[in-house]
Write a structure and sequence with these properties.
The chain is of the alpha/beta class and 328 residues long. The protein has 10 helices and 9 strands. The chain has helices spanning 7-12, 27-40, 56-65, 78-88, 107-117, 164-169, 183-193, 220-236, 249-283, 286-311, and strands at 17-23, 45-52, 68-72, 93-97, 101-102, 121-128, 145-147, 159-163, 197-208.
């Protein structure tokens, strides 16, 4: 338990937060993460460690330090492992975490406070110190708590805090993606389609190494490209994600149409980019390709800005602060 909560209190105090983390070797990262959880989690919590086929020392450590440990004989991947943690979680909220991160003091109480203060919060994310995705990267914390624009670039899934019942109703993490990536973008789109928000709490700054697992995959770039194709095929298609009962059918259909249009523009962007990279590889004419790429990016960015304005009609100001009313 966190803070001053004793073992006896653990059996009688309702669990507010289930901290779920995956481990695949990298024992030094897991050890540092667990220590930050034990030292800095300031709400009644449980620590769930899913070991994805680590060597014996890392697997034994997971079994020894977790309140609940699941030891998989092989690496099942991100989404299946996280869903295993979700299935055994008892907390009102679940924090899905990367093991190459360090949680700061009061991280839990602040993120839970933000989730409770914002009824439409589907996901609450902290600031992080490093990521190839810069959306939530910060050098220091601030007092800002903001709602991210729907169907914009989703934040990296270093720490995603969600209501357990909401995540269960959404069906958990999508397991069709390969090990490297894709699940976080898919989850954010599912949250947005259900008229929920992704809330960014900059009061919490999580130290993050980044790519600790991907760096161990020889083919992570191939897997990333494969996941991207799966994501675009899914979201430009006709198959709908789970709809929460609280999301009215007409709102769901409107948001689903928005998601389909955004995924279509993403598909166009990546098609152009990939063609330019192929051209550069064949010709070596880097300056020509850079100029073409810049023009294409400006054109697509302008179109996306226009589409974003259309997509947010009918909602409250999409840049509204999370401490304001959650207007529809």
């Amino acid at each position: 338990m966190g803070g001053d909560v004793t073992g006896a209190a653990r059996r009688t105090t309702p669990t507010v937060l289930s901290v779920v983390v995956l481990a695949w070797d990298n024992l030094h990262h897991t050890r540092a993460f667990v220590e930050s959880v034990r030292e800095n989690t300031d709400v009644p919590y449980e620590l769930i460690v899913i070991d994805n086929g680590s060597q014996s020392d890392a697997a034994e450590y997971a079994a020894a330090v977790a309140d609940h440990a699941i030891l998989n004989p092989e690496n099942r991947g991100f989404a299946p492992g996280m869903n295993q943690g979700l299935a055994c979680a008892a907390g009102e909220y679940v924090a899905f975490c990367n093991n190459d991160s360090l949680l700061p003091p009061a991280w839990a109480s602040r993120l839970v406070e933000t989730a409770r203060a914002h009824p439409r919060a589907g996901i609450v994310v902290p600031a992080i110190t490093a990521s190839s995705n810069p959306v939530t990267v910060r050098a220091e914390p601030s007092d800002d708590v903001v709602v991210l624009d729907p169907f914009s670039a989703p934040p990296a899934a270093v720490v995603y805090l969600m209501r357990r019942d909401t995540m269960s109703a959404l069906g958990g993490w999508e397991e069709e993606y390969e090990i490297a990536s894709g699940e976080d973008v898919d989850l954010c789109f599912t949250v947005w389609v259900n008229d929920l928000d992704v809330v960014f709490d900059e009061r919490v700054l999580v130290a993050h190494v980044g790519h600790a697992t991907a760096s161990r995959l020889d083919d992570w770039q191939y897997l990333w490209a494969l996941n991207r194709r799966r994501f675009l095929a899914k979201w430009t298609g006709t198959t709908d994600p789970a709809r929460l009962p609280a999301c009215e059918p007409e709102r769901f259909e409107r948001n689903r149409a928005t998601a389909r249009a955004v995924a279509g523009w993403m598909d166009k962007y990546f098609t152009i980019r990939d063609r330019q990279r192929d051209l550069q590889a064949r010709t070596g004419n880097a300056s020509h390709v850079r100029g073409t790429r810049a023009r294409s990016r400006r054109a697509i960015a302008g179109s996306l800005r226009m589409l974003r304005g259309v997509f947010t009609v009918g909602r409250a100001d999409p840049a509204r602060r999370a401490d304001g009313p959650p207007g529809i």
